[in-house]
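tool=predict chain=A
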Amino acid sequence: MLWLFPDLQSGVFVALTGAKDNQNAPPVYSIVSQASDLLLGITPWLNQSTSCTFPAPWKDVKPTERGNASMPHPMPYWNISVTPEKYAGQYGHLAFGNITLTKDIEGVMLYYGRFGKMRLLPISDTLFVGYFLENLSFVTNSDGNTKPFVIEFQIRGNAAVESLEFPVDLSVPEKTSFKRINKSGPRYTRNNSMQAARKEHAGFQTVLSVTAAWCLFH
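tool=predict ok
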């Protein structure tokens, strides 16, 4: 957290380490507020008593939904008629590489990059929720941050999955579309390069080299 005061050519900076599972936001805010008041030469509006109860009594305190390290996602289930095999396979994007879906005894797992491992649970044939596991479990399983990712599939009339929509950039509402890769089709490789897709980009023979855009998942 960084608060700057240009008129004083100074500021207050606070950094924390550790997991986001200890209800730290209100205490940090109260510390920065009191330090800023002292820096500005004004009487702190938080005292020893209200610092411990902040944001009460000015605002109702709503319990923060807490993560559960021993249970990073709800109990697996499969409540749709489409079988997990229909979704298993590789999906590619020109800039963001491959996403791989595999079938296991509990349903479908999603793998993206070095650390992106996600359990997918169906809401409908085309809509799933995803919970990260292992290294990135804190993204969907930590205090105040327990919302799953929403993954959408595009399915043709004959139940063939054409693509999946994955939220690569969480700062925008639009999801990124990853196209289903056929074994005989062009390959999107993990070394961030791709041979030109002749069928979809006829006459556009090129190799696209991407050196960024892996931020969270690589």
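DSSP finds two helices and twelve strands in the chain. Residues 25-40 form the longest helix (16 residues).
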